Amino acid sequence: MTPTRTATLATLVGAGDTVAVGDGFGAPRALSRELTAVAAELGDLRLVLGWVPEADPELDAAEFADARTFMPGWGLRTPVAAGRVRSVPVRLSATPALLHGPLRPDVLVASVVQTPEGFRFGNEISWQHSAVAAGARIAALVSRGAPSCATGPVLPPDRVYVVGETDDPPLDMPEQPATAEIERMVERLLAYIPAGARLQVGPGALGATVLRELTVPVRLDSGLLPDSVVDLDARGLLLDTPITTYLAGGPRLRAWAEGRELLHPVEVTHDLGRLSASPLFAVNTAVELDIDGQVNVEGTEKAIVGGIGGHPDYAAAAARSVGGLSIIAVTTTHRGRSTLVPRLSRPVSTPAHDVDVVVTEHGVADLRGLDRAERTEALLAAWGPAGVREV
């Protein structure tokens, strides 16, 4: 076995470098304070962030000369709103191109797990292999609490520098109980999921409820896996090994994932050609839709609340797959306001032509084969008494 290289962040990161920090629930948070101190001392570091599901108070973006993210929302809402982190609008499948181009990192700070063959990424792979392929040195936090469930070759040993170790497990995905409206939506949309379907679900209560309420066997081909996949497997309804890039659950999910080859890089999980080559059923939600069926997942007129992420990747792949469906499930109101609007509060995240079926707690709008006027009529019917939000 190749000897392990050790270093400190202060010796691994140089003046003017761009530093990318691995994302997801297994992000290397134990190094955040040290990285912030290095940034404060050098004064000219650039920071690249991905999906930060929970705020990290010890990683201070204000100490960097420039900080950007391609997955705003959740843990980055406050720094994005304050202008300390700039939000780059990009679909997740396009992040490898950015990481080989204007956002190319010199150093990737990442959590890794030790395996007999060498180091691998742990709780998620996401875009991290792209950063390595673009030439980044890996400042590795060795995690003894993360599962080993990645596919593919080990990380190149000549690029890995161990800068710390931790026994802390990845963060847990917060429980999001399903509302009565979500339960009604899921009951309707499950009628569209056939036995043996290849299924993608988004994060949060909707995706977890879909997996919990399924009564037919499915294959999971999804950007993330929630805890409810464990129960799906226990019920004998999980076909084959899931394909994913993020684990978004708790101890049960991580224990179940250990030793399974689940995690793939985004170049695989979000590849539209692969995804659309056979029937794909994509189930996602939205912040709002307009009367033409265009989707906004980024936020309201007042604030960014989420990122584009893989939403347009999976919706487009499902819509173009023969026999598949792109399904958007959304409650008709949020905080007393209709989620159907005459004009979106933010730019379009997913275009209308990549949406096949819209499900609400009041009904279903099957948009396939409809012209513009018919689509609007179908959406209005699905929104029922909520109607269109008044401007």
TrEMBL record:
GO biological process, alphabetically ordered: acetate metabolic process
Family annotation (InterPro entries): AcetylCoA_hyd_C, AcetylCoA_hyd_C_sf, ActCoA_hydro, NagB/RpiA_transferase-like
Keywords: Hydrolase
Record domain Acetyl-CoA hydrolase/transferase C-terminal: where: 263-381
Any one Gene Ontology molecular-function term assigned to this protein's record: hydrolase activity
Coiled-coil intervals: none
Domain of life: Bacteria
SUPFAM superfamilies reported in the protein's UniProt record: NagB/RpiA/CoA transferase-like (SSF100950)
PANTHER family attached to this UniProt entry: ACETYL-COA HYDROLASE (PTHR21432:SF20), ACETYL-COA HYDROLASE-RELATED (PTHR21432)
Name this protein carries in UniProt: Acetyl-CoA hydrolase
Taxonomic placement: Bacteria, Bacillati, Actinomycetota, Actinomycetes, Mycobacteriales
